[in-house]
Write a structure and sequence with these properties.
The complex is a heterodimer of chains A (379) and B (394).
Chain A lengths: L1 H19 L2 H21 L7 E7 L4 H12 L4 E6 L3 H9 L5 E5 L3 H7 L3 E8 L3 H27 L3 H4 L6 E5 L6 H32 L2 H6 L4 H31 L5 H28 L3 H17 L12 H8 L2 H15 L3 H8 L2 H20 L1
Parallel strand pairs in A: 1-2, 1-3
Antiparallel strand pairs in A: 3-4
Helix pairs in contact in A: 1-10, 2-8, 2-10, 3-6, 8-10, 8-11, 8-12, 8-14, 10-11, 11-12, 11-14, 11-16
Chain B lengths: L1 H15 L4 H18 L1 H20 L8 E7 L4 H11 L4 E6 L2 H4 L10 E5 L3 H7 L6 E5 L3 H22 L3 H9 E8 L6 H32 L1 H6 L5 H30 L8 H26 L2 H18 L12 H9 L2 H14 L3 H25 L4 H4 L1
Parallel strand pairs in B: 1-2, 1-3
Antiparallel strand pairs in B: 3-4
Helix pairs in contact in B: 1-2, 2-11, 3-9, 3-11, 9-11, 9-12, 9-13, 9-15, 11-12, 12-13, 12-15, 12-16, 15-16
Classes of the chains: A alpha/beta (379), B alpha/beta (394).
């Protein structure tokens, strides 16, 4: 027993050296995650802002100008407004993506509005960016609707003016009062980046030995297959864990995430359970791969679907039912949900446990599968 | 070892033929092509991975919300309140959980068992008829801010629709009629996020083939020691470079044709632009992606470093800084500036235009020029850094 531990410890040390002795790969464990955390936390936004709007007004009466003023006032969304004199140039501008949306106000607009005659406003949107188009469409509708209500209350005098305020619903955002997308991104990235680091370390470790021919040396050593596997996983678990702690600290120090001490402990536990299940996947890939290229590709073939189906960019609920089971066996999905919850919502231990338990069976299955495959490949 | 022996054999044979550059290049090319064909992982990355990605982007990544778990607190049991409740129940967007007391539901927001709560307060009917502020309240779980924002819009839209159906306040009924906003969404009439995501995702796929695959090829020669064998042959820097470039370029074009065929026939995405324009845009992007991959592999020296580099400089910008999912216009200016330095941004824009709009040269031509320039910069740096003696290499 003592001998076994000694052997594993030696192998672990060797593995750690293999990763850490190279200056470049040492840097790669710290630099890029940091860089990514910084860049992507600012970049990952679905909010639609700074849009260029095109306006073609055939009427310059008061009502038309009032309506235009409302669009001019919404500067956060419509930063620039361009004016056009005919429909042909408007079309061209949309084609060339100079503007995302265009509004066409007809010649009798103001006259009709003052008289209370129904009038039409045409809106053209560029659907090449579907998300921005649908958000801007909703926004334009709302501006026009608000405008109409105010105009009506002005025309028909008080009384009804009050009824218009029906629309103002107060929405409160819990856990993230300023609705800051950065908070959501940073807390999720801790999981995504941890996944990547652990996966790459484990997926390449056995493949590298095979490629360089040192795997035979490992096999003729007194190490048993299980010991080799343990010796290969411990460094990855260790490094993944340290990486996770490091990024957690970054999130708290740089991005001011409201993590409590209890939350920190819970998060460490989650990261630990998560890293275990990822190591299983990594070793599985590693046992199949003959070369590092294959190992890398295997890791990548896992990483991309895992990232897409974890709720980081788009909610898991949007995925059709028949594909959603994939999200439920994806350890990253649990990690991302949990780290967001722990960072922002200050959950009780019971809630965390009720959310985290699937990581244990997933980890057991992946580790068992990796061991079984590794044993078979050894023979 | 076998590889090394082969390459030594072939170079010896070449030298016997004299310094015929053509034969030399031909031999090296053949070696690279064989290396691609004989390694199942190259085939995996060029043909299988694109299919998986295409599949995931068309079904797994969607910005169209469905089955949002929301709670409705019915503090008042009037018929109006029930009517509003049924408006939420009737919507396919929501999956409801109804309660009498908000304290029952609030804890469920932690951990996302509910994404939002709509409170219909005890004085709902009174407030509504008196026209007071805030007849209903909404609490949204802000943990995922982007989704929270969308959910808020969906709930408000349902509320507005219910209000206008009610037509209780005259102003609302009249408001619906006074100005009729006629929106037309060009190029993507149903405003499907899928139609925009699939052409864009081709950029990720091409990055994989261009950058990932090539980043490993030179690093591999160093690590296995076959680079020394190559350097002892009379190959020039240009030859070596050419032979690393051409096979992967062809592989990229082949993969592009495959995914285009699948997107248009299998996934119902229109291809309104011409095939030649698509080929041109793809070639320009591949020049960039391959240049980046080769540069990484020349600088990296071993495969572990090369893979990391390819992920960071290749894949992540293609996914996050390209405008594929996230809005470039809303990013802070330093990041927006950064997006201009990576080609995926131009490629995604060209692809969307080509697939959904057509050959709009005002967009495509500048994009192609910028991508070619970026590619040229990488290729020149790579050609200069490409090792020719053992000392400069390591």
């Amino acid at each position: 027993m003592k001998l076994m531990l000694y052997r594993i410890a030696r192998l672990t040390k060797k593995e750690l050296l293999a990763v850490l002795k190279d200056r470049r790969s040492r840097f790669l464990l710290i630099g890029p995650p940091l860089l990514q955390l910084l860049i992507f936390s600012f970049a990952a936004t679905l909010e639609v802002r700074n849009v260029t709007l095109g306006v073609y007004m055939e009427d310059h009466g008061r009502a038309a100008r009032d309506l235009l003023a409302r669009f001019q006032g919404a500067q956060r969304t419509f930063r620039t407004i361009r004016y056009y004199r005919d429909l042909k140039t408007v079309r061209q501008a949309i084609d060339n993506q100079e503007i995302l949306a265009a509004i066409h106000i007809g010649p009798d607009f103001s006259k009709h509005i003052e008289l209370g005659v129904p009038e039409r406003v045409q809106v053209i949107l560029d659907g090449r960016n579907a998300n921005a188009a649908s958000v801007v469409q909703g926004y334009i509708n709302r501006i026009v609707e608000d405008y109409v209500k105010e105009t009506l209350s002005r025309l028909h005098e008080p009384g009804i003016a009050k009824a218009t305020s029906l629309d103002s619903i107060v929405t409160r955002k819990w856990f993230n009062p300023n609705a800051d997308p950065q908070w959501s991104t940073v807390s999720a990235l801790v999981g995504v980046l941890c996944n990547l680091v652990v996966l790459l370390i484990t997926a390449l470790s056995i493949a590298r030995e095979r490629e360089l021919g040192t795997f035979e040396q490992l096999l003729v050593s007194p190490l048993r297959p299980a010991e080799i596997l343990i010796g290969k996983s411990v460094p990855a678990i260790l490094l993944g864990f340290i990486e996770g702690i490091f990024m957690t600290c970054m999130a708290v120090v740089i991005f001011d995430l409201p993590l409590t001490l209890k939350g920190f402990v819970l998060l460490l536990g989650t990261i630990f359970a998560f890293v275990f299940s990822v190591v299983g996947v990594g070793l599985f890939v590693s046992s199949i791969a003959k070369t590092q290229q294959q190992g890398f590709l295997g890791a990548f073939t896992y990483q991309v679907p895992a990232t897409l189906l974890c709720g980081f960019a788009t909610p898991v609920e949007n995925v059709p039912d028949w594909l959603r089971w994939l999200a439920y066996v994806n350890p990253l999905q649990y990690m991302v949900t949990l780290s967001r919850t722990i960072f922002l919502e200050n959950p009780s231990t019971r809630v965390v446990l009720s959310m985290a338990w699937p990581l244990v069976p997933i980890g057991l299955v992946t580790l068992a599968a990796a061991t079984a495959l590794f044993r078979r490949r050894m023979q | 070892m076998q590889d090394m022996k082969n390459s030594i054999d072939s170079t010896l044979r070449l030298q016997r033929h004299g310094h015929n550059r053509f034969i030399r290049i031909w031999g090296l090319l053949k070696k690279e092509v064989l290396q691609v064909l004989r390694d199942p992982s190259s085939i995996l990355i060029a043909f299988i991975l694109p299919l998986i990605l295409l599949f995931l982007f068309s079904y797994g990544v969607s910005l169209d919300l469905r089955e949002i778990k929301i709670g409705v607190v019915l503090e008042q049991d009037s018929s109006k309140a029930r009517d509003l409740l049924s408006a939420f129940q009737g919507s396919t967007y929501f999956k409801l959980r109804v309660a009498r007391d908000r304290r029952q539901l609030q804890p469920l927001l932690v951990g996302g068992r509910l994404q939002a709560i709509v409170v219909i307060p005890a004085e709902f009917t009174r407030r509504k008829y008196r026209g007071d502020d805030n007849p209903v309240q909404i609490i949204v779980r802000g943990t995922d801010a982007n989704t929270g924002e969308l959910i808020q819009h969906y709930i408000e839209a349902t509320w507005r629709r219910w209000l206008s159906q009610q037509g209780t306040a005259q102003s609302n009924a009249a408001a619906a009629n006074l100005i009729d906003v006629r929106s037309r969404v060009w190029f993507n009439e149903e405003v499907e996020s899928r139609a925009a995501l699939i052409p864009g995702s081709l950029a990720v796929i091409m990055t994989l083939i261009g950058t990932m695959l090539t980043s490993l090829v030179v690093a591999r020669e160093w690590e296995r020691g076959t680079m020394e064998a190559l350097l002892s042959t009379p190959v020039t820097r240009g030859d070596l470079f050419l032979c690393k470039f051409v096979p992967y370029f062809l592989l990229g074009i082949m993969a592009m044709i495959l995914v285009t065929v699948i997107s248009t026939w299998g996934l119902d995405v229109p291809l309104r632009g011409s095939f030649w324009a698509l080929l041109m845009v793809t070639s320009a992007f591949l020049a960039y992606a391959l240049g980046l991959g080769l540069l990484i592999s020349v600088v990296a020296g071993n495969q572990f470093v090369a893979t990391q580099g390819a992920l960071i400089a290749g894949f992540l910008p293609a996914f996050i800084l390209s405008g594929l999912v996230f809005e470039i216009n809303s990013m802070p200016w330093p990041i927006r500036f950064l997006t201009y330095l990576f080609a995926p941004r131009y490629f995604v824009s060209s692809l969307r235009t080509l697939f959904l709009a057509g050959d709009v040269w005002q967009i495509i031509a500048p994009n192609v020029i910028v991508m070619t320039l970026l590619g040229a910069v990488f290729l020149i740096i790579t050609a200069r850094k490409m090792p020719i003696t053992l000392e400069t290499g390591k």
